[in-house]
Amino acid sequence: MRQATAMANAAGLVAGYALDSLLGDPQRWHPVAGFGRAAGALERRIYRPERSAGAAFTALAVGAPVLLGVAAGLATRRHPVARAALVAVGTWTVLGGRTLRHESRLMARALQAGDLPAARGRLNHLCGRDPSALDEPELARATVESVAENTSDAVVAPLVWGAVAGLPGLLGYRAANTLDAMVGHRSPRYARFGTPAARLDDLLNLAPARLTGLLTVAVAPAAHGDRAAAWRVWRRDRNDHPSPNAGQCEAAMAGALGVRLGGRNVYFGREETRPFLGDGPRPEARHLKRAARISGAVGLAALGLAAAYPVTVGRLVGVTGRAALRALGGTRPGSGRAAGSGRAAGSRRAADSGRAAGSGR
């Protein structure tokens, strides 16, 4: 039964990835958008400019999808085909790889055509920067950085959590990541309220972001990149970024493409200056299709690891855990039997002594 469950989870991840690659995001009635509206309604009810309120909001908004996933998993524990179908739909829902690559290519076409208004109009599909004053190199840089970071957020991380925790992991991760996008940014309203959501998202992305960086280095030749340069830049620059995770992805992408990322970012109402990552020129339109190719190759590599995990490492972890629990559980009954034997022996000795005393009388 456990083997069938592991196989169902692996099959569901593969099928969901295929659905995302073929269909992309649902054009209407996207479940993530519906979750965002529900989370927004919850925020309006419990908002206070305090971290405790933000913690309650995060716990409720992430806990509900996780519990839904747990309930679905329990309902399908003896029905592997139904479980695989649910995991497939969940994976398709939370992935965003095809849309990410599509947006990168659309931006490349607009920049190659010299259509800056069209390119500026597309940037909000990728990130929250103010595009009004950005020229071609800055629009290209914003796109490369967004593709690098979102390859982790929208592809690798969901696959990792789906492999480790099945449907609850898929839904819980996407909920946390969506909350970070909604309230995790620095602003007067969310400076304290949004901190718990931001910290949870950082925690959940620690391992996936580093895996994304390593996979980007590994697949760099798929886009005519230099694996050695990507490795060198990733090791040197990955911790210079203010985010604990974004720099892992962006440094590796900068090295793979042979460009320099970072610099001054202007958002609506605020400005940030990021350290430079990588060597070489600023990105251009020609780099965007290569970035999309690397993103796709990283996604396929992550899928292979994620699909293998439930039937390899995940199964070994489960067997080891169950063996440890059985060993711990066996100690207590054994101790009880030993104590019972002692009591029985004591009773027999007392009875024998009583009979001996009676004979003496």
UniProtKB/TrEMBL annotation:
Instruction: Report the subcellular localization.
Output: Cell membrane
Give the top-rank taxon of the lineage listed in the UniProt record for this protein.
Answer: Bacteria
Gene Ontology molecular functions: ABC-type vitamin B12 transporter activity; threonine-phosphate decarboxylase activity
Entry keyword set: Cell membrane, Cobalamin biosynthesis, Membrane, Transmembrane, Transmembrane helix
Biased-composition ranges, Low complexity, are: 340-361
GO CC, sorted alphabetically, is: plasma membrane
User: What residue intervals traverse the membrane?
Assistant: 53-75, 81-100, 291-311
Keyword Cell membrane assigned to the entry: answer is yes
Q: Which residues form the signal peptide?
A: none
Q: Tell me how this protein sits in the membrane.
A: Multi-pass membrane protein
- GO BP annotations listed: cobalamin biosynthetic process
Region (Disordered) residue spans: 327-361
Q: Name the predominant localization.
A: membrane
- Pathway membership of this protein? Cofactor biosynthesis; adenosylcobalamin biosynthesis
- Family statement: Belongs to the CobD/CbiB family.
Function description:
Converts cobyric acid to cobinamide by the addition of aminopropanol on the F carboxylic group.
Recorded hits in PANTHER family, A to Z, give: COBALAMIN BIOSYNTHESIS PROTEIN CBIB (PTHR34308)
Query: What's the protein here called?
Result: Cobalamin biosynthesis protein CobD
